[in-house]
Amino acid sequence: MPQRDGGPFKLDPRGCPAVKPKIELKNVSKIYPAKTRLNGAGTKVAVNPMTLTVRAGERLGIIGPNGAGKSTLLRIIGGLADASSGQIHVEGRVTAIFTLGLGLREDLSGRENIYVDGELQGKSRAEVAPVLDEIIAFADIGEFIDRPMRTYSTGMKSRLAFAMLIHINPEILIIDEALSAGDCLFAAKARRKMQEICDRGMITIIVSHTMQSVLDLCTRCLWMENGRVVMDGDPATVTRAYLDAVRTQDEAALAEKLDRPLVTQSFRPGCQVTRLEVRTLERLGNQSMVFSGEDTDVLVGLQAEVPLQNPQVRLRIVRLDGLVVVDSVQGVPIREEEHGLMGCLGYRITMRPLVLGAGLYRAAVELLDGWDVVAMRSTMLEVVTRRPPTGGRPVLLYPCSVSATPIG
Amino acid sequence: MAVLGFDRNDGKLMWAFFGMNIRDKYLGSRLGSLWAVANPLLMLALFTFVFGYVFKMKLPGADTTLSYAIWLISGYGPWLATAEALMAASLSVVASAGLIKNMAFKTEVLPITAALTGLLPLGVSLGFLALLLVVDGNMLSWHAIFGIAIVGLQFALIISLGLFMSAVTVFVRDFAFALPNILMVVLFATPIFYPLTSTPPIVQAISLGNPFYIISEGYRRALVYHHVPDVVGLLYVAALSGVLAVVGLKLFRRYKGYFEARL
Question: Which member of B27, B99, B260 has the closest CB to residue A81?
Answer without folding.
Answer: B260
